[in-house]
Structure of Glycosyltransferase, group 2 family protein:
Amino acid sequence: MVEDDASRAPLDFLSHNCCPATCLVRVRSFADSGGYDEAMRSGFEDWDFFLSLLSTRVDAHIAIAPEELIIYRTATTSSNITSMSHRIDLMRHIIGRHHDLYVEHLEAALTGIEAISLSRLTLWETLMRGEHNPSNDFLRHPSCGDGGMATAVRLSTRSMTPLTTRPGTLPSTATPTEIPAPETTPTTTTTTAHS
């Protein structure tokens, strides 16, 4: 079952990759989209693919399953981490490949990126005011597709011995000063609505 509010349209994918895990795609939809760009070896090939997939039909969307179906582990050598040093170049490549979509929906793309920036500023301001430590929440539930997972993995591997956690849980061995490592992301399965 897929919840209505978990469906993602092309505009949702302009600012970041909204689909952080395993996906199921109809063979015809895969072929119609042109598949993955095999030249994209540095990362973001899934984001590029989803934009291509969503551009094939007017009614195309990606549905996100509301419950966890897989465990996704991110290692420090994962392309999720290593691609961050090339993030701007990779975004340029994606924008170039989907130029017409970005031009047509420039406002949605820019406001989506700004919304991500504002949420990070709010997180930082809350931390600086000492109201509570939002870092623990962020590291247990990092954002996906916008560098959040990569940041959480980098922070956890530099600051402490990683703790294994399930999404939404704090390990019983953790103390208030420890930051749990994001061994898993909130997991999803995606499908397309193509018939």
Summary: Residues 106-129 form the longest helix (24 residues). The chain has eight helices and three strands. Strands lie at 7-8, 62-64, 190-192. The two ends are 17 Å apart (CA to CA).
